[in-house]
Write a structure and sequence with these properties.
The protein is an alpha/beta fold and 429 residues long. The protein contains twelve helices and 25 strands. It folds into two domains: 215 residues, UDP-n-acetylglucosamine1-carboxyvinyl-transferase, Chain, CATH 3.65.10.10; 209 residues, Alpha-beta prism (UDP-n-acetylglucosamine1-carboxyvinyl-transferase, Chain), CATH 3.65.10. Strands 2-15-17-16 form a four-stranded mixed sheet. The longest helix has 13 residues. It binds ligand SPQ. The site of ligand SPQ has 19 residues, from α1, α3 and α5. Ligand SPQ binds next to α1, α3 and α5.
Length: 429
């Protein structure tokens, strides 16, 4: 449980934990490469530790400390696990790892918590089955849910047109492509986060990118690397939004990932009128990073329309953008975001229900929300739905609400942002 009170001041210079998406991929590629990969600023959150645990069960030696070392045995070094692999709450782990398991000459069972068992898996099963893997799961109507049973082996290369812009689907197919003879391609309807492509290149794979089409060659020799992970812009987003809506606030966040497939939140903040500066930009381990400073506009933020190609570039930030929009002058419309309905929770339903309890005026639509602002918020008892992004977004809403906000069931925050409430305490007075 978290108790939040209105903040009169919100100020500070901080860094946030390592990027979750990049942390997962660093373990996966470290395990697929030959030699000792060293990872610094790895996210020690439950989701990424679940990935570590799965690879240990597949026979990879991984040491977790201030830095992580992964002793990779190459593409054919895994052994059949003794037990079912357990991914906890991590959709990224189950979907991307399935791509690797599809290429293994053994059968693996993989599952996760109650939320994972409600997340759709047909999106990865379809292309992996086309490549030759045999995958079964819990069938309900047209959809298939975990637990999954994956029998893999040598795969056929395919060129797969994904129906959704999803980095998890793209990554599952590209990593399966490492086990196919020839070139495997993924054609995306919009750009999704490209950490897998970047890291594959960084580890020495042959990757060709033609706009939204990505191709990888099978059977590469991946070489162990040093990977330093930038701060997670999705974690930074909570504090960036707080700085934009609390009068007089300012935040500086160092060493944040600035991959253009993830920076939609900065565009939204700018278009709504917040002052956003980016400096000290550099590229480390194949990923751009820098320092971000955000201040509010000095008056109210403004309404905005968010949809189309922008959506995959801020998909995980939509819950916190909803909080931002409750403070905007006019009607903010979010569309093309029906993917939000199949995340750790139905994020459209969750944000509408909990923010409306606090006094917001939000109407859910099939693929987004219409938010009428500005509305003052009042403290209430809010539910996280076991979803880390809902819990943290409501905590920021609590900073601008009158009275006390109690957020229940906040252990889920540890999946992506251990130390969130401590950092928040240090910034908000
Ligand atoms: O791992 P999980 O649970 O799927 O994580 C989420 C999140 O909010 O942390 C989604 F619920 O982020 C996904 C993101 O939405 C992480 C991700 C990745 O690392 O590849 C890609 C996105 O999902 P998708 O379905 O669009 O591929």
């Amino acid at each position: 449980m978290l108790k939040i009170h209105a903040a009169e001041k919100f100020q500070g210079e901080i860094s946030v934990p390592g990027d979750k998406s990049i942390s997962h991929r660093a373990i996966m590629l470290g395990a697929l490469a030959k030699g000792k990969t060293t990872i610094t600023n790895f996210l020690l959150g439950e989701d990424c530790l679940a990935t570590v645990d799965c690879f240990k069960k597949l026979g990879t030696q991984i040491e977790v400390g201030d830095r992580i070392t992964v002793k990779g045995l190459g593409l054919s070094g895994f052994k059949a696990p003794q037990d079912t692999l357990y991914v906890g709450n991590s959709g990224t782990t189950i979907r991307i790892l399935s791509g690797i398991l599809a290429g293994q000459p053994f059968t693996t069972e993989i599952t996760g918590d109650a939320s994972i068992q409600k997340r759709p898996m047909k999106r990865i099963i379809d292309p992996l089955a086309q490549m030759g893997a045999i995958i079964s799961g819990k069938k309900e109507g047209e959809q298939i849910y975990p637990p999954l049973r994956i029998s893999g082996g040598k795969l056929r290369p395919i060129t797969y047109k994904t129906p959704v812009a999803s980095a998890q689907v793209k990554s599952a197919v590209l990593l399966a492509g490492l086990f196919a003879e020839g070139t495997t391609g993924v054609l995306e309807p919009e750009y999704s986060r490209d950490h897998t492509e970047r890291m594959l290149k960084y580890f020495g794979a042959r990757v060709r990118i033609e706009e939204k089409n990505i191709y990888v060659n099978g059977g590469p020799k991946l070489t162990a690397k040093e990977v330093d992970i930038p701060g997670d812009i999705s974690s930074a987003a909570y504090f960036l939004v707080a700085a934009a809506i609390i009068p007089g606030a300012e935040i500086v966040i160092r060493d944040i990932g600035l991959n253009p497939t993830r920076t939609g939140i900065l565009e939204v903040l700018r278009r709504m009128g917040a002052k956003v500066e980016v400096f000290d930009e550099e590229i480390i381990s194949g990923e751009p990073r820098g320092t971000i400073r955000v201040q509010g506009p000095g008056s109210r933020v403004q309404k905005i329309k968010i949809g189309g190609e922008l959506i995959p570039r801020l998909i995980d930030e939509i819950p916190i953008i909803t909080v931002l929009a409750t403070q905007a002058e006019g009607q903010t419309v979010i569309s093309d975001a029906k993917e939000l309905r199949v995340k750790e929770s139905d994020r459209i339903a969750a944000m509408c229900s909990e923010l409306n309890k606090m006094g917001a005026k939000i109407t859910p639509t099939e693929d987004g929300m219409i938010i009428n602002g500005p509305t003052p918020l009042k403290g209430s008892t809010a539910q996280s739905y076991g979803d880390h992004r809902i819990a943290m977004s409501l905590a920021i809403a609590g900073l601008i609400a009158d009275g006390e906000t109690i957020i229940q069931d906040t252990e889920c925050i540890n999946t992506s942002f251990p130390g969130f409430s401590k950092l928040l305490e240090g910034l908000a007075r």
